[in-house]
From TrEMBL:
Catalytic activity: (4aS,6R)-4a-hydroxy-L-erythro-5,6,7,8-tetrahydrobiopterin = (6R)-L-erythro-6,7-dihydrobiopterin + H2O
This protein's UniProt keywords: Lyase
Pfam families reported in the protein's UniProt record: Pterin_4a
Enzyme class: lyase
Name the record gives this protein: 4a-hydroxytetrahydrobiopterin dehydratase
Transmembrane portions of the chain: none
Amino acid sequence: MRNVDLPGRDWVLVPERIRREFRFSSYEKAREFATRIAELAQKEGHHPDITLSYGRVTVELTTHDEMSVTEKDTGMARKIEELFRNMQQ
């Protein structure tokens, strides 16, 4: 596994991917965030694994062609962080 510049302190490196769990006060807010990630993924052409639970969204990013974490993943993670920050305002 190569050195990866994680996009924030809450992202963790797991085999061949980066992961973060986001917490929300309700299912509706978590669903809205997951939807925004999906819309961003379509626009960017880079699709994370998204798990939606009550008050939680877990995101995992990897570049399947490389079978590792690349700049595509860390760049997408930074954009997801920005979406999250904007929702908190």
